[in-house]
Amino acid sequence: MKAKLKFLTKQSLDKKIKTKWFLGVNIFLMILLIVLVNIDRIVTFFGGDFNEEISVIVHDEVGGYDEFASYFETSAESLGEMKNYKIEESTESLENLKNSLEKDDNKIIISLEADPTNYLKGQMISFDEVGTISTQLIQSSINALKQEIAIKESGLTEEQITSLTSPATIETVLTNPDKDSEANKDLIAAGVIMIIILPSFFLILTLVQMIGSEVNDEKTTRSMEIIISNVSPQTHFLSKVFSSTLFVIIQGVLLVLEALVAVLFRVFTSGGISLGGASTGELTTQISDILTQVNNSGVLSTMLQGLPWILLLFLFSFVLYAIVAGVLASMTTSMEDFQQLQTPIMLVIMAGYYLAIMASQFEGALFIKVMSYIPMISFMVSPALFMLGQIGIWELVISTLITILCTWIFFKYGLRIYKVGILNYSSSKLWKKMWKSLKKKSA
To answer: What is the pLDDT of residues 210-228, one digit of tens each?
Structure first.
């Protein structure tokens, strides 16, 4: 049996991997990832102004250019946007500056004029509409300058002005020491969850479709009868489950490698990964800062603590989905029939996916904790709750053990249906045949 199982598993896996389609899809995925990582360069290459510097020209009639420039630069730096702006003062007349504006001219003219009732009047002049960030930066800088002019004209001393304009000191005190970095931790954990859950979601979809297609192909070509005459249904069933599970694991590893290749391509061709085109040194600093934040948040240590159980949970969940898909596929005679039967599986996957990405919104709720124990959903929900600190290691262990037990139960009873279904060529009364096959074997 072992030799036949190994042979069928290898043959089934080879049919999936040693094909031009598999090679073509992975080449396409690698190209797609490279394009996504380098999207800013592509936009620029085709004439976009992704990194084009915006020139802010100030026509000053109130003597407040220095203060305006200081407010603007401080605000832009806080947003990490100052590299996209160049601010300068012009002594030309406002009319000449207006006439100098042309189409696709990346200039904004700021006019600062005295106002007897409002202290300061500002104009923002450009050829086309100004972006939201630029508008907010200019408005906040003009308002800050207006306040300073108003305070200076009020007759207050320098010390009073400084005291009045300086920001209030706000100290955050938490009596729970464990909550010091809760917001940062949740944010980082949510990012890690998305990185793990999203690929798993698509891998499960691939696995389900693959088993249905393969089983129906063998039934359509009548090669199923030849195979079953030489091997037991159990061996055939196991070969489908093992080969499909191995395939999605291999594909998952390849996705990680392709993502790394895309990042390295960015590094070696431009020397940076940030949208501004950071240097290699800056890239190293960025990565170091990210790793430091992840480490300080405690997310990394939490993930490493539960990693063995998370991997087991994912593995047996893949096997469980493969078993369910194989059983349903055995009772159908065409992909159209299988598409109808797999609808409940798709709904379960979608439910698990949305519960996982919304896990942080259910903090403390009994509902989400119960969902973390349900097989076929738990592999997405349990790791999410564990990373967010809403469940402990023992809850993760219990969820994994429940999935393992459920996998064994589904295989034991699913095999009874599979034995009857693989030689069934009628598409009528599918559910009735499934229940009948269970009763026969259990009698």
So the answer is: 888 888 788 777 777 777 7
Residue 175, amino acid = T
Question: Looking at 199-213, 231-245, 330-344, which range is the least confident one?
Answer: 330-344
Task: Please give the share of the chain, as a percent, with pLDDT higher than 90.
Answer: 8
pLDDT in tens, 349-392: 888 888 888 877 777 788 888 888 999 888 888 888 887 778 88
Residue 121, pLDDT score:
84
Cβ contacts of 121 within 8 Å, gap of 6 or more: 112, 113, 114, 115
Q: In this predicted structure, what is the pLDDT of residue 261?
A: 87
- The tokens describing 384, both together, are 């999410």
Longest dimension (CA), the chain: 102
DSSP code at position 178: G
**Nearest by Cα to 292 from 283, 300, 282, 304:** 300
> Tokens standing for 68?
């305006």
Q: Place 429 in a pLDDT band, splitting at 50, 70 and 90.
A: low
The two structure tokens encoding residue 23: 């090679």
Place of tokens 């009528």: 428
Q: What pTM does this model have?
A: 0.66
Interatomic CA distance for residues 294 and 193, integer angstroms: 13
Residue 55 DSSP SS3: strand
What is the pLDDT, as a whole number, of residue 220?
77
Which three-class secondary structure state does DSSP give residue 130? coil
At 272 the pLDDT is 45
Cα–Cα distance between 434 and 248 in angstroms, integer? 28
> Rounded CA gap, 254 and 29, in Å?
10
CA dihedral in degrees (255, 259, 261, 263; nearest 10)? 180
| DSSP conformational letter for 426 | -
In total, the chain counts a number of residues equal to 443
Residue 319, CB half-sphere, CA atoms under 13 Å: how many? 20
Beta bridge partners of 125: 109
Which of 109, 114, 72 lies closest to 94, judged by CA?
Answer: 109
Cα 326 to Cα 137: distance, rounded to the nearest angstrom: 59
pLDDT at 271 over 80: no
Q: What is the DSSP string of 323-353?
A: HHHHHHHHT-SSHHHHHHHTHHHHHHHHHHH
Q: How far is CA 92 from CA 54, 145, 277, 396, in A?
A: 19, 22, 34, 69
| CA distances (Å), origin 246, targets 8, 48, 210 | 13, 43, 12
